[in-house]
């Protein structure tokens, strides 16, 4: 049984209810949170099998650490295997990490992750759509996967057999208009069959964190004092955008201009490295890190 815990209840109007999550099909009506407050920093999901190989665990932890150091919030499900390795990698570098649970926040599942759960509570955030007291029922976990994908701008599939929860998460990425990356592995390894299948179906190759960052339009260095000069239309479009990809029609509506004008401006901004085009015809501001390590969007 779980014990009574204090948690925050967050509804869609609350700032902690991340904007991209509210745009997916069947978004959760409310979320229960413990730990650090969520902000609108760009997030990336790292998922995979519970029965991971040493190679998969090493890659998940390494990628999570590199991506967290670049300013991304690492989201996963705190399951054994790849999920736990991703959380550990982000925590090891002092980065932000979010664990989306398939039970109430007063439950620790799996029990072997009790120490990891404590570290996430101290340095990251626990999230669930299930109220305290809810047990970890099997059908909760495929359902919670939509929250993991919904929070993220991209999903990285490290290891997974051809069927299972991680593959559900990977397919949701395409359905929700998120970028999907897959880590290649040995051709005879069953946990690599899922990523290889996704690569054949058009997922991006996740070779290094730098490759992922480049594909997402996240640039590592911007000299101080060199912010670009924008035309009035370009500034309106930039003001309408943020780090979370959105459709052209929404950009145009927020910028209060025709879609054709917004489309032309977006092309110019994309060529200038200020905007990134994502899966599903969605656009977001490029994320840039100054030499000091400060992350910004412009």
CATH class label of the largest domain: Alpha Beta
Main structural class: alpha/beta
Number of domains: 2
The main pleated sheet reads as:
9 strands, mixed
Fraction in helix: 25-40%
Order of helices and strands: EEEHEHEHEHEHEHEHHEHHEEEE
Unreliable spans: 220-225, 289-298
**Rg, please?**
19 Å
Label the CATH architecture of the largest domain: 3-Layer(aba) Sandwich
Widest sheet, order of strands = 1-2-6-5-4-3-7-8-9
- Strand coverage percent: 15-25%
How many H/I helices?
10
Notes on the structure:
By secondary structure, the chain is of the alpha/beta class. The protein has two domains: 8-215, Rossmann fold (3-Layer(aba) Sandwich), CATH 3.40.50; 232-297, Arc Repressor Mutant, subunit A. It is 35% helix and 18% strand. It has ten helices and 14 strands. The chain has helices at residues 54-69, 82-92, 114-123, 140-151, 165-175, 193-200, 209-215, 232-240, 248-255, 259-271; strands at 8-11, 30-35, 43-47, 73-76, 97-100, 125-128, 154-157, 179-182, 204-205, 246-247, 275-278, 282-285, 287-289, 295-297. It has a nine-stranded mixed sheet, with helices on both faces. The protein is globular. The N and C termini lie far apart (48 Å). Mean pLDDT is 88; it is low at 220-225 and 289-298.
